[in-house]
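Subject: mismatched residue count in predicted assembly?

I count 276 residues in my input, but I want to confirm that the predicted structure covers every chain. Input:
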Amino acid sequence: MFSLLFVAVFAQTTEEDKLTITVREFHQALVQKNTIFLNQQTDKALSYGHSNGWVQSKKDLINDFETGYISYQSFKEDSITVVINENMANVRFVADVEATLKGTASKLHLKVLEVWVRKGKRWVLFARQAVKG
Amino acid sequence: MKAIITFLFLFGAVAVNAQTKDEKELTEKTYLLSHTVFGTKDSLTLEKLLAKTVSYGHSHGNLQTRDEMIKGVVHNQSNYTDTAVSSIKIFIEDETAIVRYLFKANENKKDGSVTNLNFSMMLVWIKEKGTWKLMGRQAVSVQ
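Triage response: the counts match. Full output below for your records.
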């Protein structure tokens, strides 16, 4: 009985699991400059805040990849926590990021808050704020 | 002169009316939160403003739950002077709202030292039973 329950719990994909997968995919899309995916997975009112206080709009996020203003060489997130409240979620994690801004490469250790909102069956990124951790 | 006053009055009225009911409530609550955290430190006000599952992130990266945040504010022995909230921007998506603003203050610590604070703030608000509650906060230092 115990083992049966155990299996049942693990077999179920929760909304939190689903969102965690999307979050990871989103970060890899940043590295790959997959602007089609980034466009699909972000809210039109996106505000994307960096650890130095710089905030990108949705348009900035897409354009700054296309102009080469910023690029990510790697993005590794860890310790993801997802707290869903109705149709929104707070996602917090730590991340090791290698990024190049205006030709200057840097390695950042970040603590990040992402706010995701549910649109139908999909989750889209509404806001993000990073802080150096 | 009268014409200028009339113009200012009309302009002011239009500027106020341009805010939606939600934007007005979010702006007021953002000021109230800031004023409470860095001023009155009143726990009852914080209890009303904070959602149960709030996560409250500081500029150094440390995170607090609702209880930890309220205790932290109440027991904070620093005094804040020259506090200023500016550049408020509000983004609303259904029943979730993001408020971004700049915050400046001088933190006067108990030991007599003074630290200049210069933060960019992101607040996450959710609508619960028709009223906006703080679900998240992340400060970042822009010094």
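The longest helix of chain B spans residues 21-40. Marking this ticket as 'not a bug'.
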